[in-house]
Amino acid sequence: MKTALVTGGSRGIGSAIALGLGKNFHVVVGYANSKDKANNVAKEIVAAGGSASTVQIDISSAESVDNAFSIVEKEYNSVDVLINNAGVAQDNILPRMKESEWLEVIQTNLTGSFYTSQRAIKLMMKNKWGRIVFISSVVGLSGNQGQSNYAASKAGLIGLAKSISREMGTRNITSNVVAPGYIETDMTSFLDDENKENIIEQLSIKRIGKPEDISNVVSFLCSEESEYITGQVIPVDGGLTT
Amino acid sequence: METNEVFEKVKGLFVEDLGIDESKVTMDAKLEEDLEIDSLGIVEVVMAFEDEFDIEIDDEELADVSTVGQAVNLLHSKI
After folding, report:
1. CA angle, A31 then A36 then A38, to 5°
2. What tens-digit pLDDT sequence spans chain B (79 residues)?
3. What is the b/e burial string over A143-181, where b = at least 16 CB atoms within 10 angstroms of the residue's CB?
4. Hey, of B38, B39, B44, which one would you mutate to test binding to chain A, going by the most A CBs within 10 A of its CB?
5. CB distance A170–B44 less than 8 Å?
6. Half-sphere exposure of B56 toward its Cβ, with a 13 Å CA cutoff?
7. Where exactly are the structural domains of chain B?
8. Residue A206 exposed, middle or buried by CB count within 10 Å (0-12, 13-18, 19+)
9. Is residue A195 part of a domain?
10. Catalytic residue among B17, B38, B54, B59
11. What CATH number does residue A125 fall under?
C-alpha cells in the first residue's frame, strides 16, 4: 500500500483530506501540536477499515521535517503522496504589519512546503511515482485585505507547484494546487452570520464550503486516474472565482 | 577503495537505479550521449552516489564530470 503524508492533518481541511485518502493509502497524519486530535483522525481512518499513523512535523523547521520524514521512511519505506496542507495566518493590514508577522507566515506556509516537497521528491524520484498536492487558497489568486502575507505565501505555492511539475514530469510525479474558497473550519470560525451571508451572496453555489469538498478533489489528484493532470491550480470555491 | 571497485559500484547504480544496459557502462562512456541520461537522471545518479558512499558532492564538482570515468575519479578522490 502506498503511503500518504498530510501535514496539518489533525483538523479542518487536513483531517478531511486524511480521512479521504484513508480509503486508498496508508495515511500518516502530520501534526505540529495537536497530538490528540491527530490520534483521533488516525483512529477514525482505522475504524473505517483503513490504515493510519501519526507523526509530529512542524513544517516551519527543516530539522523537524527531516526527523518526521526519517521516521516515516523507516517505517513505511517511502512517501508516495504528499499533501502540503499545514499553514498559518497572521492577518494585519499592510501598513501595520510587523516584519515578524510577514516572516512567520512565509516561513511556515511557503518555506515549510519547500522543506517537505524537497524531501518527499527524493523518495518519489527513486520510486518513479509520486503525487504532491498543495493546499493554497483563492486569496493566493485574488489577494485579500489584511492578508498580504498569507496571500503572498499561498501564491508562492503555485509557483513552487508548477516548477515541480516541470522538473518531475518524466518521473511520473505530478504536482498540483487546490485553492479552497470559504470553507467551514477553525480558520474561518471568526466569521459571523452576517459575514457569511455576504460571502454566500458572491457564490454561485449558495453555501459555505465543507472540508469534504476539498478532500474529494485532493483524493482524485492523488489517484492513478489523474496522471495526466499536473501543474494546475484548481479552485474549489463554489464559484467565487470564475 | 581501489578505482576498479568504485567503478563496479558505480556500474551497479547505473544498471539498478537507471536501468542502463550493463555493457554500455564503460569508463569512457559519456553520460548524456552514450548512456542517454537526462539532467534529472544526473541528479538521481548523484543522489545515489551520495547515499552509497556516504559523501556530499557539490554542484561545482559536477561541472567537470561528463563521462563515467570522470565520475569514478571524482568519487575515488572523495572516499
Report:
1. 40
2. 788 899 999 999 888 888 899 999 999 999 999 999 888 888 888 888 898 889 999 988 888 899 999 999 999 998 8
3. eeebbbbbbbbbbbbbebbbebbebbeebebbbbbbbbb
4. B44
5. no
6. 1
7. 3-78
8. exposed
9. no
10. B38
11. 3.40.50.720
Per-residue cell: A127: 520510486
Assembly ipTM? 0.76
3-state secondary structure of B70: helix
Three-state secondary structure call for residue A115:
helix
Q: Do B47 and A168 touch (CB under 8 A)?
A: no
With an 8 Å Cβ cutoff, the interface of chain B facing chain A consists of 17, 38, 40, 43-44, 47
Q: For residues A82 and A89, is the Cβ–Cβ distance under 8 A?
A: no
- Give domain B3-78's CATH number out of 2.120.10.30, 1.10.1200.10, 2.40.30.10, 1.10.287.130: 1.10.1200.10
What's the one-letter identity of residue A124? M
Q: What is the SS3 assignment for A82? A: strand
